[in-house]
Amino acid sequence: KTWESLPSSCRPLKGRINIVLTRNTSEEFKNEIQSNADTYVYHDFNDCVQDLYINKSDINVYNFKINNVFVIGGESIYREALNSKHCNRILATEVYKKYECNAFFPEFTVANPLKLKEANSSDFVISNVSKFMNENNGDEDIYYRYITYVRYNPKFEQFESSPLWQNHEEQQYLDCLRNIITTGIETNDRTNVGTYSLFAQKFTYNLEDTFPALTTRRFFFRGIFEELMFYISGKTDNTILTDKNIHVWDGNTTRDFLDNRGLSHYPEGDLGETYGFNYRHYGANYIDCKQDYTGQGFDQLAYVIDLIKNNPNSRRMLINLWNPSTLHKAALPACMMQYQFYVNTRENKLNLQVYIRSSDFFLANNWNACTAALLVHMICNLDGIELTPGTLSVVTGDTHVYKSHMEQVNENLNRFPKPYPKLIVKTRAKNIEDYVYGDFKLVGYHPDPSIAAPMAV
Questions:
Q1: Who contacts 314 (Cβ-Cβ below 8 Å, separation ≥6)?
Q2: Nearest CA among 112, 171, 216, 185 for reference residue 449
Q3: Mean pLDDT computed over 146-172
Q4: pLDDT score for 68
Q5: I need a labelling partner for 71 at 20 to 30 A (CA). Which of 124, 355, 405, 419 fits?
Q6: Among the listed residues 277, 304, 280, 278, the one whose alpha carbon sits nearest the alpha carbon of residue 378
Q7: pLDDT for res 225
Q8: CA dist., res. 21 & res. 44, Å (int)
């Protein structure tokens, strides 16, 4: 069937021996196929492989130097190839579109590259991941990439010395996570839960081709988008998020929490003078989340977007969410408190560095990194801005793991990173407030299951 699916102008494939495996035993059919140069018919996979390897058949192997034998076809022949001792490499094309299928590539095990001593000879290791590519199919772009897997062989020294491929960007997160719980300083904190803490960590992500969503546990992209849009709106009323089933701020806006912060005059659900307010109304007099602050204060977000458009060499493209004189008005002062943008005018890329003063590393660090990455994508796709996402740098001050998260941390550290996904922005927006969740699509995301953990309040 694969042979017949090839355009007639491509049959046989040039510069190689073509072997057609078929259940059709008709001599007429066989003769028709073998009338093509360097083309042969077999009915059994093992017989074919046996003849290729010991050179005893009517295949004229002496006219060729056989470097590789490739198998292309359907589910059954792939399964036979995987189960044989001869298959040492899988060249996969991942196409990121849903299709109705009645046959599937057989499942196979990908070994943890950091625990190869636990692997066996039926496992594979990722050896190469290409960049994302796309082709337009009428009214949509179809994205795909190539991933190469190599069968694990303990006799190959490269497997012992250095894994062939790693997601180094996610690995830097996991390495820091491990360092915190093994070398971090044991501290107490305002929650009285207790933490292990390190100071002054830095993480770098290339946003050009991938999006830094953890693959060792699933992240909540809709929650990140809705929270960011909540900030962009300048609002501080948590019911806006809870109405969308986003509950990341519930613990810090309860009646008890606000009362303990001395904010009993705020209605329940009020974030106070923090993220959204300082994005869009910095310096205005904050009363509570029910007020209309239109036109009040300084709009830092609009200011930065204007500089990116009209003065890309500016060194003043900062958003600062930290106002020491009004911290007492915040339910929780901003953790990710400063953004600095940089336009690479040589490559037309938008870079961003964020500073997180207090990073709940297991629960919130990657959430914050993805928030920053999403903001870069959104700005790059505004009308009047012809930039592409560049580099994201995340700097953390007090970088800690809560003692209540130790079980979850250890579970996470037993997993290994897969290739990062890509964020597709399907439409350009006139204003940053105009985006909706349906404007974004994440492709190539195959994470491990999420790991739930309680937030310390």
A1: 307
A2: 216
A3: 79
A4: 83
A5: 419
A6: 304
A7: 98
A8: 7
Rg (CA), the chain: 28
In eight-state DSSP terms, residue 451 is -
**Sole residue written with tokens 């960011």:** 228
pLDDT at position 52 is 79
CA distance 366 to 409: 14
**CA pair distance 218, 442, nearest whole angstrom:** 12
Q: Name the amino acid, one letter, at 447.
A: P
Name every residue whose Cβ is closer than 8 Å to that of residue 394 and which is 6 or more positions away in sequence: 202, 203, 204, 205, 353, 354, 356, 365, 368, 369, 372
Pairing status of strand 336-344 against strand 349-360: antiparallel
Cβ distance 378 to 432 under 8 Å? yes
* pTM given for the model: 0.92
**CB distance 388 to 346 below 8 Å:** no
User: Three-class SS of residue 133?
Assistant: strand
Helix (H, G, I), strand (E, B) or coil at 321: coil
The pLDDT tens digits of the residues spanning 213-235 come to 999 999 999 999 999 999 999 99
Bond preceding residue 312 cis, omega within 30 of 0: no
CB burial of 139-150 (b: ≥16 within 10 Å; e: otherwise) equals eebebbbebbbb
Q: What is the dihedral of CA 81, 83, 87, 93, to 10 degrees?
A: 60
State both tokens at 120: 């066996």
Are 431 and 439 in contact, with CB atoms under 8 Å apart?
no
Confidence at residue 245, expressed as pLDDT on a 0 to 100 scale: 97
Q: What is the identity of the amino acid at 427?
A: T
Predicted confidence at residue 48, as pLDDT, reads 86
**Confidence tier at 420 by pLDDT (50, 70, 90):** very high
- At 127, phi and psi to the nearest 5? -110, -20
Q: Map tokens 């990710």 to a residue.
A: 336
Q: HSE on the CB side for 211, CA within 13 Å?
A: 27
Residues annotated catalytic, as ranges: 335
Span 86-99, pLDDT tens digits: 888 999 999 999 99
Using alpha carbons, list the distances in angstroms from residue 5 to 27, 141, 213, 248, 418.
Answer: 21, 24, 38, 51, 33
Contacts of 85 (CB under 8 A, 6+ apart): none
Taking the C-alpha atoms of 258, 260, 261 and 266 in order, what is their torsion angle to the nearest 10 degrees? 30
pLDDT digits (tens, 9 = 90+) for 100-154: 988 899 999 998 887 888 888 889 999 999 999 999 887 789 999 999 999 988 7
Is residue 2's pLDDT more than 70?
yes
